[in-house]
Amino acid sequence: MDLLTHVLVAYLITYGIVGFHPQYLAAGALAGGLPDADALFFPLARRFPILRHHGITHSLLGVTIIAGVGCLIAPVLAPGSILIYFVVLEIGGASHILEDGFTQFAVPPLAPFSDARLQMDADRAINLVTLVVSAVGFYVLLGVERNHVAFAIYTLTLYVLVAFFVAYFAIRLAGRLAIGRRIKATRAYQQIVPTSNPFTWLLLSEVNADGRVRTTWARYTFGRGIVEGPHSVEGPTQPVPHSGAPQTERDALEWSYPLARRASRVIEMTYHFGEAFRDAAGEWVAVWYSLEFTMFGRSAGVRVRFPLDGAPPEVKSTFYRPRLRAI
Predict the structure, then answer these.
(1) How many Å is the Cα radius of gyration of the chain?
(2) Which residues is 300 bridged to in the sheet?
(3) How many degrees, rounded to 5, is the angle at CA 112 between CA 121 and CA 35?
(4) How many domains is the chain partitioned into structurally?
(5) Are 39 and 129 found together in one domain?
(6) 3-state helix, strand, coil in the chain (%, to 5)
(7) Which residue ranges in the chain fall short of pLDDT 70?
(8) Residue 38 has what pLDDT?
(9) Is residue 176 one of the residues assigned to a domain?
(10) Pairing, β 200-209 against β 212-221
């Protein structure tokens, strides 16, 4: 989930709990976004993995610590009950955990006591639909309506937004459960990954054996079944001895795959796919990209370019728009 959606949903939940009390609404909304502040720990996360994104701040312990500290500081900034501040901060943070767990990215709600992950695979981590609704919702609530319209109109807008998110989450979850039942019997795929379209999903399988990884994906649309694929690609996990420049697509993929895994944690940790092609200069270019870490039609990936003279390949992390439109 994007940051705006986290904040808006926490705002709506807080309103449902305490009503229109600006100080509590602000605290609840802030708590809805605070877990993503772990992005600021990036330099330290390499040394202390518990501080990585979707780490301790995305756990109930982390949320409770934030709520405990926040409920002591908040009354100094805006008068209010310490207990109510704690409740809205706790629930706002917990809503963030639940929303992230609703997507294809797992969160550890019981960390550091358990590594158990919450991952429902029902939506994209960043979906343009919810992002736009959240941005427009905040603009209307805090820019257009606040102190400019009757309170009844303001509350009506809140109820419309609540209805939208309840319906949206229900549709995504129902779709995930339905497609899970439909493909379970086939055993052809191991994983279901959502796309931005709630009626279209990616079916994935990955086989890692004998030092090689093979990934297969197909596109499934409700009412039509598999509409594209299956497409498969594989590569070795360790470098393959070679010299000169690649001569074929297979060479480019084989030689680039270990380099891409080494260059990007995203490639190593998520389902991914690869494509190879010649550029205008005749050089082979291979791109390995995540099938899960995507946004706005592009995917996090690694581009490997092989010079014609056989010089060392150029490896660059990038956001890539797949030719097969796998996202």
Answers:
(1) 23
(2) 319
(3) 60
(4) 2
(5) yes
(6) 50, 25, 30
(7) 45-46, 325-327
(8) 83
(9) no
(10) antiparallel
